[in-house]
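Priority: medium. Attachment 1 of 2:
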């Protein structure tokens, strides 16, 4: 019975879409290299693991700011093409969420 449960747990996990994969695809479609997309996803994963849910608004703003700066600093280390693609992508996202 345990083997059966383990098999279905694995099968169920494989069927659940990974949000990182769709975000990675979105970044690549925006013109970022796979290296840049993977670096951004790594920062996202690290930040989500390190983030502690808090009712303190100031702490939440600090964490979001820290995350944003990590992404910006990472992009500065990437190729000029990746920096341009990320800039365009970020502007489009800002416009989308502005309203």
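Attachment 2 of 2:
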């Amino acid at each position: 019975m345990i083997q059966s449960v383990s098999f279905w747990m694995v099968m169920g996990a494989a069927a659940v879409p990974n949000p990182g994969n769709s975000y990675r695809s979105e970044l690549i479609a925006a013109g970022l290299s796979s290296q840049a997309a993977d670096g951004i996803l790594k920062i996202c994963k690290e930040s989500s693991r390190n983030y502690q849910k808090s009712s303190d608004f100031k702490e939440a703003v600090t964490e979001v700011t820290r995350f944003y700066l990590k992404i910006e600093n990472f992009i500065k280390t990437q190729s000029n093409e990746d920096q341009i693609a990320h800039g365009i992508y970020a502007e489009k996202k800002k416009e989308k969420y502005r309203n």
